[in-house]
Amino acid sequence: MSDEEASKYPHSAISTWSGFVYQGKVALYHCLKLINQGDCDFQLQLDSTDDFAIYKYNNLISAHQVKAKIGDYRSNYKEALEKSASIELDRIAGIKRYFHISQPINDHSDYLAPNHERVEFYAYGEFRHCELDKIEELTKQIIKEIHVRQAIFFDDSLIETNYCLLSEKISSQALTIHARIQNEGDAQRKAAYEHRMTAANILADITDANPYERKDYFAIELKARLHTHLEERLAESLPCMSDAAYKRARRIYELIRLSEGGDFKTLCQLMKPSEKFSRIQNSDIRRYSDLLHTIDAEPILKRLPHYLDSNNKFYAPTALYLPEPTDKRYCTSEIIAEIKNNDDLGRLLFEFNNLIAAKANESFIIDTKYTNCFDEISIDDQDRIDSNITKSLCISILTKEDAEARLK
């Protein structure tokens, strides 16, 4: 695309780091708010006309700029407010312009620009700001209200599930833009401008009363929660991080954000291989994240974070927490039991048979007595397979210190 053609499309911030998480949460909240008010004909556009924008019948209805953690004073937002009020391309005179902030400021009255365009600080109930940790609960409340209007029976688990699926939908839209740029050669501006998400599709996800039947649910949920945890950790730790630690944290965050569902199915199983494939607990997410950020070895950031030693053996970080000597025995029996009932886990452990524990009293080896024939394994066939062992799967559970020594 020539410079002249590219000038027809707004600048895209799709690949920028700052505010990505907050921006997506705010966009989802606003879309659900419109749907709850009965508007189901709009389209959501991300990172093009503005941080996000609402279109209807190909006309811009509202432009939204989102700013997280910039400052306590209106003056901190002067340049951003001027940009929000500018008349450019689809942002013609008279359209609605909203400004979203994550913290209170000394003056949140409407901004009236010299060109007479008005920028309104977005209202969240009685407040003109919304913290990152509050937007999720507000969004879930709107989902509940939509369920009531649609006469859908719901409980807290269903609300949590639909929220995770919808959050992933916003992230997937951004990934679709990236994929089109890379695979089809579209210029970034054009791809961001043209790819939009319809209100009808968002509503369809809300009214799906059986999201647990979706095969990818736990993987999608893990991605959303791990992504949020890494964002919050980075924000909290940034002032005292070294440049090297910051670069690693940012690369890990970007990998998680851009990874696809299949990678998270793998992570769901490898993060806690001693437990049934299910929802990963918050404590496990924290332990896994802490290990990734503190282990004295640079991870290979492909598919999901992992390590490779000088003998080309793969190592996977986990959330295994084994502080007591007796934990070794329980962990061994639990992993063997899970392999017996989960062919996918067995295949993964043949590839990643060196597991780094988030905390362990000592390193140890689990001899599973299984060979690499998981396509054939069933409960009825177990005795036959056990009697024909040629080379069994041995899994190393390593302390952080022992893993670091091997990876030097």
Automatic annotation (TrEMBL):
Domain ABC-three component systems C-terminal: 119-358
A Pfam family it matches: CTD1
Protein name as it appears in the record: ABC-three component systems C-terminal domain-containing protein
UniProt lineage: Bacteria, Pseudomonadati, Pseudomonadota, Gammaproteobacteria, Enterobacterales
